[in-house]
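Project standup — Tuesday

K.O.: blocked on the structure for the chain from last sprint. Re-posting the sequence here as requested.
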Amino acid sequence: DTLVRRLRKAHVRRPEKTAAKLQAWSEQVLPPPPRLIAYEAKSLKKRVELFRGLRSAIAAETEEMARCLVRTPGVFLTAIPGLGVVLAAHIMAEFGNPEYWPRADNMASYAGIVPRQKQTGGPGKAARVGRLPRDANRILKNYLLQAAFHAGATGEHRIQEHFQLVENREGRSRLSTAKLLVRIIRKLVKTNMIYLPKNILQPPVPVSPEFLIDRYRAATQAMDKKWEKFDLSGIPDEENHLCQGKENLDVIAHINARNS
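H.V.: unblocked you, prediction finished:
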């Protein structure tokens, strides 16, 4: 069961069949020569120690990354389904200080997810769409495409709906999902608000104030779960955007509940 679970986590197709095949192969493996067992055991022990050391170093880097992110409005990116702390921190680091962010179209161009266009022959002729720019931020482009895929494959919300439309077009325009994500990221960071699904922003039918408040609070639970494994102690509340965002959302929830 553990093998099947790990294969599934690694996105292996037909994990049950693959696990059975691996087990069958393991029964056919020849045992090592007895004189090599002691050496192989020592070597394996050192490799395990190295692996654990690398994991410990990665955990320390991730912890510090989270403590830096929570001091910025980039914390609200983790409210988007599929986006974790690490991916959100990478995107924020590449875009830089939100105070100097340009329009969403310029941010998308900087990330290299907007094809170049060339127009000749006057305004009467249509522009010719070329290739993606090579001199853009390729690291940021990679992070945004990862984020678009994860957000599009998780939950039911606006990004997921757009991503499914793209998939129905044989995935030929996944860049459009990344561009939509850039617009949403800019909006969340600039307004200090978490990402809310449609059934909260635009309820299909009239709902009670209590139901609306519960939905708002439920929207923060998934974000809280992504942050619960990080130690944020020692960070003042006035610098912790996670706390500020939840307080703002609670106020907005009660205002909207009264209006409804």
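K.O.: great, moving the ticket to review. The longest strand covers residues 117-118. Residues 113 and 175 are 6 Å apart (CA to CA).
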